[in-house]
Structure formats: structure tokens, C-alpha cells
Amino acid sequence: MQKNRLMYFLIITFFITGTAWISLAILTKLNVITFTHPIGTILHIIGGFGPTIASLFLMSEKLTLNAFKKFVFQYKRKSMIYFWILSAMAIATIGISSMEFNPELPLYLVPIVFIQAVFIYGGEEELGWRGIMQPNLENKYNFSIATVITGIVWGIWHIPLWFVEGTSQQNMKFSLFLVLAVILSFWLAAIYKKTQCVFACSVFHGLINTLLSVFVIKLNIVLILGLVVMLIYSIYLWHSENNKNLRLSD
């Protein structure tokens, strides 16, 4: 299985997620349950854990508690500064471009939303996308191609949610979501390259999802410029790290 990690990762991921989210779409379309029904919530969560579960089957070491902790929480010393820089840039970009809090989300609930976003609704996916898929693609392609492929697959993986009545995805055009998924993939891939820490990617993913809930997102020049600057910075970080590794290997 280790020889074909990427293929098996995609098969397991899409099988778990597809089974859960397509079932949820059918049940909500038939008015059997609502999206917020306990069964709907369970199916939604199971689908979101597709990449996470797949990654556990495909870790480079046998699945033990110590191996899991190493896979998720290990990091390169003195590398977290890049996580904090990109986090600050994301907060500034989304916050300044919006300048308007979401009135439907009380601010006292933000910490709870953030914790859920890191561990249940988004961040948990990073064990698969950045922990398995991105590194395996970089063994075959350059950084940009690997990241674009990961972003596109990640976006396509979400498609069933557009058919589930009551999801936030139904309020956004899929084409726009796909572009944002690719851009976010560059940020996350750069964080993983610099830190080698899956959990840092999980926290950053959770932060982005939280910001999208806290602020009223507005497509304007500030948002576009912020996204572009972060994209360029992410590509720079990857190349700087790659060049440093090449110098060390000489």
C-alpha cells in the first residue's frame, strides 16, 4: 500500500466522504432529515473525516500512539514564525477587506467555533491533504503543480455539499470556491514545507474557516491584493526552504 499511497489515499478518502455526504444530500433532498438534524450532523462529520481516516491507514510508520503524535505534532525548530506571519496576514486581509462582523455569530462563541474548526470542521482534513497528498505529489512534480493539483482535488472533494440542503456552500459559486481552495492550498503547503507540522496546518485551516464565519466576506481590491500578496509570499517561502535544503545537501 505504501508504494501507491496517493492512489489509496484518494480511493479511501472519496469513498468515505462520498458515502456520507451523498447519503446526506439524498436525505435532505427527500426531506427525511434536515442538515442540522443529529443524523445530518453525524453524516457531515464522518464525510469531513474522510481524508483524516485515509491518512491513518497510510502513515509511513505502523499506527501507534507515538507514531500518530509524531505524524501530527512534530515540527522543525524555530519554524513557527512563518505560521504566525501567514496567520497575521490572513487576519489582516479578511478583517480589513470586510470591516464588518457577521451579526449572526455572537463574538463570545468565536473561541468555540475556532476549536470546532480546527478539530472537527476543516482542520482535521490536513492530516490527509498536507500530511499525505502534498508531499507525495511533490515527489513527482514541482511545488506549484503539486499544490494546484491538491487544491483542485480538495475543491472537487467538497462537491457533494452543494447538493445538501442548508449548507453554506450553496451560497457560493463552486468556481469561486475552487479558486479559493487552490489559493489556500498554497498557504497551507508553504506552512507545511517550512514547519513540517501537520497540526500547524490544521490550526491555520481552522483559523481561515473561523475568519470566514466571523466576518462578512466582501470581494474588493483589499481582499484581492491580500490574497495575491499571501500567494506570492507562500511561493517564496517554499522556494527559500527548497534552496536551503539543496545547499545543505551539497
Question: Over all CA atoms, what is the radius of gyration?
Answer: 18 Å
Low-confidence stretches: none
Structural class call reads mainly alpha
* Spatial shape: globular
Helix content: over 70%
Please report which band the strand proportion falls in: under 5%, 5-15%, 15-25%, 25-35%, 35-45% or over 45%: under 5%
Give me the number of helical elements. 11
Order of secondary-structure elements: HHHHHHHHHHH
Number of strands: 0
Q: Largest sheet, described in full?
A: none
Structure description:
Helices cover 71% and strands 0% of the residues. It has helices at residues 5-29, 38-48, 50-57, 65-73, 80-98, 110-119, 126-138, 143-157, 174-195, 198-214, 221-249. Helix 5 packs antiparallel against helix 11 (221-249). The protein is globular, with a radius of gyration of 18 Å. It starts with a helix and ends with a helix.
Annotation keywords:
about 0% strand, about 250 residues, mainly alpha
Topology:
Elements: H1 5-29, H2 38-48, H3 50-57, H4 65-73, H5 80-98, H6 110-119, H7 126-138, H8 143-157, H9 174-195, H10 198-214, H11 221-249
Short account of what is shown:
This protein is mostly helical and 250 residues long.
